[in-house]
Structures are given as C-alpha cells and as structure tokens.
Amino acid sequence: MLPDLFSFERRRVELGPGAAILGGFACDQAEALLEQIAYLSSIAPFRHMQTPGGRRMSVAMLNAGPLGWVSDASGYRYTTTDPQTGRTWPTIPPIFMELASRAAQALGFGQFAPDACLINRYAPGTRLSLHQDRDEQDHQAPIVSVSLGLPATFLWGGLQRQNRTTRYRLAHGDVAVWGGPSRLMFHGISELKDGVHPLTGALRYNLTFRKVR
Ligand code: MD3
Ligand code: FE
C-alpha cells in the first residue's frame, strides 16, 4: 500500500473565508496530547466555572499559557493566575504549540504565537451554548481548535445570534482553524451524546489556542 499523502487535503472542510476543519490533522499526536492534558490537570485542575448570571457551566475547563480564560459572577476575562490556586497557569506544552502553529500555517496564516490555551472537557450531556469569542484583543490572529475523544456536533452560525446554524461533526483528531471574518461568528456544541472512545472513555476534550494580547 502506498501512504496516503493527501488525506488531509481530501478531508478538509471549508467553513468560510479563513476557516476550515482539517480532518484527522492531530490523529498521530493524540496520545501525546492526552498525556499532556493529564499532566496539566494535575497542576491546574479541571473546574466548572460560573456564568456571570450565576449558573454552573456544564463544560469543565482548565487553562495553560501566560493568560487563562475565566468566568465568574463578575464576568468573563483573561487572568495571569489561576483564581483557584493563586499560581500562574501551567506552560503550554511544546507539542501543543507546534501543532497549533502547523494548523494555522495550513490555512495560510503567518507565525501563530498563541498566549492562551483553553482546554474544555465534555461528558455526555455537556453542551456549550451559542456564543462569540470576543474577550481577546487580537482579532487578526486565528483561533485553532483540536478535538479529542468522543465526537461532537458543532453549531456554526453567523455574525448575529439569531442567524441560522449549520451542523458539523468534530471527531477525534480533527483540527479547525477560525480566522478572518469567521473569527467572530457565533458557534456552539450540542449536548454530547453517550459513547466510549478507546483513548478517553466517555469524554471529549477540546483545545483552543488564542492570541489574546
Ligand atoms: C469559531 N469551544 O472554547 S471549538 C470555546 O468544542 C469553544 O469546546 C468549542 O467554542 C469546543 O470558545 C468549539 C471550535 C471553535 C472555537 C473557537 C471559535 C470555533 C470557533 C472562535 C470563533 C469562531
Ligand atoms: Fe468559542
């Protein structure tokens, strides 16, 4: 059998200008990425943040990098320290940085140096309602996301909350890049369905890499 050198190209789904899903782009590194997630969670544990309205988010989160995204009664923001431990967030592992930069390059973005990596953990029943990512100062840089474990249905909307949404499947190893006009689109994740993945059990992880400042 010849190696399939073009599988990434064939499995590339264009979502709009500057945005695409690269099917299976992270498959080869999945085990190493999961090992790093386990290590990071020993330093900054996964937690369910509170929405500004006082509701517990069903997604469990942890941060790595100079800046970490937090939500509580006083709103959403990026902090340099973990409010739960008072310590700086753990460093983004080099294999994370290397993957994020390769994915941004695949979409034609220049050097991508994210300063925030948010790790979302989904159990069956967990969802992320439609939102925009607009707490970052740099809207020029793309956002890179990496899906691991159980598959999810991704909701892709428009620039206004009420715009109709298109559904895409995000499966283990898929990497998506969101830049240009797509950077401020509304998006979300439908309630995660029950299932078992050989590497994560009944969980889905998503890494998002952002340039905040
Ligand atoms: C489109 N995470 O953390 S990843 C988030 O699977 C977030 O955990 C989801 O939305 C998850 O904010 C979706 C795909 C994604 C991430 C960021 C985006 C799509 C995006 C930013 C702008 C547009
Ligand atoms: Fe988002």
Automatic annotation (TrEMBL):
Cofactor: Fe(2+)
Keyword Iron belongs to the record: yes
Organism encoding this protein: Acetobacter suratthaniensis
Keywords assigned: Dioxygenase, Iron, Metal-binding, Oxidoreductase
InterPro entries: Alkb, AlkB-like, AlkB-like_sf, Oxoglu/Fe-dep_dioxygenase_dom
Enzyme Commission (EC) number: 1.14.11.33
Protein name: DNA oxidative demethylase AlkB
A molecular function GO annotation: broad specificity oxidative DNA demethylase activity
Domain Fe2OG dioxygenase stretches: 113-213
Keyword Cell inner membrane carried by entry: no
Domain of life: Bacteria
